[in-house]
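Input record, target 12 of the design panel.
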């Protein structure tokens, strides 16, 4: 189901994507709408689940997570529910998705070092019933651009 969003809703989303700490007053001023309208629209976006929450973007290396990798998993057919439930409990896995192609699951992993990555893959992932094999792809460098919604489409925000 897709939410029915107008241009003002999309502008609210774009502004909050840039700065989730933005006050409703500042949001209203930037969009040239009343505070009451900004409050009610934001409340509707939250209630409808369009905006699911507010978060902080961290620099992984600055908090000690200096090793990052994408780990692909091949899993047994019909084991997705059990595997995904177990993946949610593995420290170091930030995100994972069921995908199509040569592998079934793609997981983003951030840990403190190679030893921790080895343990996560060999001990944690390979102990999950339904996991047939894994392949680890180390991340040497990555884009820090944020994806934002602008004018109804996802676009990259370039870094200064």
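The sequence produced for target 12 reads:
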């Amino acid at each position: 189901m897709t939410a029915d969003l107008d241009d003002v809703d999309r502008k609210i989303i774009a502004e909050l994507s840039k700065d989730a700490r933005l006050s409703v007053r500042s949001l209203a001023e930037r969009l040239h709408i009343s505070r009451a309208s900004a409050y009610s629209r934001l409340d509707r976006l939250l209630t409808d689940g369009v905006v699911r929450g507010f978060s902080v973007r961290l620099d992984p290396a600055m908090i000690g997570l200096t090793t990052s990798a994408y780990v692909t998993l091949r899993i047994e057919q019909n084991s997705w529910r059990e595997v995904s439930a177990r993946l949610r409990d593995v420290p170091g896995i930030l995100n994972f998705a069921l995908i199509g192609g040569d592998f079934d699951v793609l997981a983003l992993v951030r840990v403190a070092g190679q030893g921790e990555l080895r343990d996560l893959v060999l001990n944690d992932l390979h102990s999950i019933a339904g996991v047939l094999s894994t392949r680890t792809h180390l991340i040497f460098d990555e884009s820090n651009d944020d994806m934002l919604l602008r004018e109804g489409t996802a676009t990259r925000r370039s870094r200064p």
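The CA atoms of residues 66 and 144 lie 15 Å apart.
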